[in-house]
Amino acid sequence: MRIGILTSGGDCPGINATIRGVCKTAIHHYGMEVMGIHSGFQGLLTKDVELFTDKSLSGLLNMGGTILGTSREKPFKKGGMTEDGIHKPSLIVQNMAELGIDALVCIGGNGTQKTAAKFAAMGVNIVSVPKTIDNDIWGTDISFGFDTAVSIATDAIDRLHSTASSHKRVMVIEVMGHKAGWIALYSGMAGGGDIILLPEIPYNIESICDVIHNRVKRGKTYTIVVVAEGIKTDGKKRPAEYIAQKIEECTGIETRETVLGYIQRGGSPTPFDRNLSTRIGGHATELIANGEFGRMVAMKGDEISSIPLSEVAGKLKLVTESHDLIVQGRRMGICFG
Ligand code: F6P
Q1: Is the per-residue pLDDT at 54 higher than 90?
Q2: Which of 193, 200, 205, 337 is in the most buried spot, having the most CB atoms within 10 Å?
Q3: Pair 124, 72 in one domain
């Protein structure tokens, strides 16, 4: 059997460790052939592929990014038609057959899960793997990349404490997460944030300023505000800039902002993410070997499992106010808006 593997959407720490998990399991345990597809679904449109050997899989465990390259090509967009009248999904199915690919592993985020579900509905032998630093893929408790992003963001917040304290400032840090507040919640709590704003919880600038004034009254000389990139703003400025300006206007306290950006996605995965990737990758290959197609590998607690792609597609896993970290944070006086 020959399997194809591709990575689609934004990169994230742990992708290469996952590729290694899928491919080594396929080659060593199941005696399969593995074909790497470059640049996501784009590579299936142009047949941009390479046959992996054991040697191509060396040194991947701790390597950031994706050795396959990625793209945001969505073959089903606009009815799947190119300007020249070619139906992209059909071309991909035809190319897969010509390349001798019997089954496909797609490593990707929410958009990729949607695409994979559509190919599964067309009868393609497909298995997908949840990949995102945002941790917002429905149906899995955790996705690789999240732990690494939280570690990086927490380190950044740790570092802001000393400069905020020296200058008696309010420091606003913006972290990624798309429409979800998972990175902000976990790094904000781990980094000792005083105010944490998530897209899932509406905030009020006056209440935030009251919290800062009260902190000053209690002798707290500085305040750390962690904001998720997905919070509502005026739509013109970056969330960190918007919140910092509002806070400075209403408190009169010098306020600075930091946007952490792509640093959260780059570089080596944490040991936790490497092991998660290894387990998830190996399980994806096992699903293929068992002929269990149209499924996404998922984590339920520490148990590895899988769920039908049709159940995942189009949904988002968001933070709820009943999350223990929010409940506990509120009890300790942390403001969530
Ligand atoms: O989904 C991962 C993520 O890094 C989000 O946190 C962020 O909003 C988005 O990707 C950025 O995407 P792009 O790589 O297209 O700028």
Answers
A1: no
A2: 193
A3: yes
Query: What mean pLDDT is predicted for residues 51-73?
Result: 95
* 25 pLDDT above the threshold of 90: yes
Look at the chain and report how many structural domains it folds into. Answer: 2
Atom of ligand 1 nearest to the CA of 177: 6
- Residues 43 and 133 reside in one and the same domain: yes
Alpha-carbon gap, residue 191 to 276, rounded angstroms:
23
* 55 shares its domain with 161: no
Predicted TM-score (pTM) of the model is 0.96
Same domain flag for 97 and 210: no
Residue 83 predicted with pLDDT over 90 = no
Question: Does one domain contain both 112 and 184?
Answer: no
In short, whether 132's Cβ falls inside 6 Å of ligand 1 is yes
Residues 15 and 37 placed together within one structural domain of the fold: yes
Domain end marker among 248, 265, 282: 265
Is residue 298 located within the same domain as residue 218? no
134 annotated active-site:
yes
The active-site residue, picked from 11, 134, 136, 273, is 134
Q: With 90 as the cut, is the pLDDT of residue 166 above it?
A: yes
Q: Ligand 1 pocket check: which of 12, 133, 146 to mutate, most ligand atoms within 8 Å of Cβ?
A: 133
Per-residue three-class SS string for the chain: CEEEEEECCCCCCCHHHHHHHHHHHHHHHCCCEEEEECCCHHHHHHCCEEECCCHHHCCCCCCCCCCCCCCCCCCCHHHHECCCCCEHHHHHHHHHHHCCCCEEEEEECHHHHHHHHHHHHCCCCEEEEEECCCCCECCCCCCECHHHHHHHHHHHHHHHHHHHHHHCCEEEEEECCCCCCHHHHHHHHHCCCCEEECCCCCCCHHHHHHHHHHHHHCCCCCEEEEEECCCCCCCCCCHHHHHHHHHHHHHCCCEEEEECHHHHCCCCCCHHHHHHHHHHHHHHHHHHHCCCCCEEEEEECCEEEEEEHHHHCCCECCCCCCCHHHHHHHHCCCECC
Q: Is the CB of 265 under 6 A from ligand 1?
A: yes
